[in-house]
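Here is an idea for our session: we take a single protein and study its fold together. To get us started, please write out a protein record for me. Once you have written the record down, we can walk along the chain together.
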Amino acid sequence: MKCKICSREAQDKGYCQLHLKAYQNIVEKYKVWLKASEVTWSEYLGQIQKNSLTGSWAKEVAKHIIEEEEQ
């Protein structure tokens, strides 16, 4: 099976190893953001995409999650 985002082999949750690590980091860091503020999951994903310090793997995962949730 291929990654939901790129053409690499999927490892878990439909993501390749690189996108899976980014996904895991996004989920873990959301817990921190949630304690610090009342940001929603959607707002958090939007902030990830806008942040110039966010890596490309995380931005791709955030974009993919947003697109999946809109369907």
Remarks:
- The chain has a mean pLDDT of 96.
